[in-house]
Specification:
Low-confidence stretches: none
CATH class of the largest domain: Alpha Beta
Shape: elongated
Helix content: 55-70%
Number of domains: 3
Distance between the termini: 62 Å
Mean pLDDT: 78
Number of helices: 9
Structural class: alpha+beta
Order of helices and strands: HHHHHEHHEEHEEHEE
Largest sheet: 5 strands, mixed
Strand content: 5-15%
Length: about 325
């Protein structure tokens, strides 16, 4: 039996037995036979009561040990609510905290593993098309019959495909890092005027070639809090999206307003607007609207939202009253 395997419990029985004998002998010497009988029965009663209480506590401890064993072997997290007293209650609370923490960590590890698998699957799926096109171009370049001009054109196309693949993989890896929380975003005061100018600078040459212009207003003296580099990435993705839907000779408008609650940046294109069916899905990964260009991967806006959501900022899309698609980015000054 477990009682005799438990050295502490066996030791208690031996000590109680020895104490009872000593008490009976002392009572017999001091008070006679009746006193010895009274001491015997009182001692036995007290010992039985104490041993029963010890037995109950040891049973609860064995039950607790069994539940911990279940937890270690991957069985569902046990409930510890039936332990209700003293030291066992304290132990129950601590083990309950530990199991909840372990369960949370297991869920986070599972989520990270799933996110990594999804990111790899996304990269594999999205890279397949440009990679196939690149292989076709390389096969064509092997032909000895191609003239110099055709070879140059094919090489430019190959360069463009490589650039798209690099941007795609970089964006997907950034999204994966954001999802797994391996990137810590800074909080710094950013002047809106210089920030918008830098966000627009990579597109100036393409805008000049296609006769597009950008009208900026209201950025003077405005500021917001965020991570400069990551917020720049998000805003540039929104600007890039707006320029894609701005026709040649059209205008992109960037307007900034500030109030005690938030600083708002509005980016409006002069295109045909966003179809109503696309509005609820614009920030979904790999979603391509009905007017999306053939070079669109559908992750720029998803990445922008992911970054801004981690910076106490929100982004939403709508159609402007004067026409064209409009994106509103609000950088809140307090937590919302």
């Amino acid at each position: 039996m477990w009682i005799f395997r438990n050295r502490e419990f066996t030791g208690q029985i031996i000590r109680y037995a020895a104490g009872t004998i000593v008490l009976i002998v002392a009572a017999r010497i001091l008070g006679g036979r009746n006193a010895a009988f009274a001491a015997f029965f009182c001692s036995i009663f007290w010992c039985i009561q104490h041993l029963l209480e010890m037995n109950r506590r040891y049973c609860e401890m064995r039950r607790l040990a069994a539940q911990i064993d279940e937890l270690l072997h991957g069985i569902d997290v046990p409930e510890f609510e039936h332990f209700r007293e003293g030291d066992l209650e304290i132990l129950r609370d601590e083990i309950s905290k530990m199991t909840i923490r372990l369960k949370e960590q297991a869920a986070l590890l599972k989520k990270d593993k799933t996110s990594l698998a999804d990111a790899l699957a996304d990269i594999s799926h999205q890279v397949r098309t440009p990679l196939t096109s690149l292989n076709i171009l390389l096969e064509r370049l092997k032909s000895p019959e191609l003239d110099i001009e055709t070879r140059r054109r094919l090489l430019r196309e190959a360069e463009g495909l490589l650039a798209k693949m690099e941007w795609l993989m970089t964006a997907l890896l950034k999204m994966s890092k954001l999802e797994t929380g391996t990137i810590s975003l800074k909080k710094e005061r950013i002047q809106m005027q210089g920030f918008v100018a830098e966000a627009l600078s990579p597109f100036e040459l393409a805008m000049e070639i296609h006769g597009k212009e950008c009208l900026i207003s209201g950025t003077e003296g405005k500021e917001f809090t965020g991570d400069y580099a990551w917020t720049l990435e998000a805003v540039q993705n929104v600007i890039k999206n707006g320029l894609e839907y701005t026709p040649d000779g059209g205008r992109l408008t960037i307007c900034c307003e500030e109030n005690p609650l938030y600083t708002e940046l509005r980016i409006t294109d002069s295109g045909s607007g966003i179809p109503k069916a696309d509005l609820p899905h614009l920030f979904e990964r790999f979603y391509r609207g009905e007017n999306a260009g053939r070079d669109s991967f559908g992750i720029g806006l998803a990445l922008a939202q992911m970054i801004l959501s981690r910076e106490n900022a929100v982004i939403r899309a709508q159609n402007a009253a004067e026409g064209g698609g409009q994106f509103q980015i609000r950088f809140y000054k307090t937590m919302v």
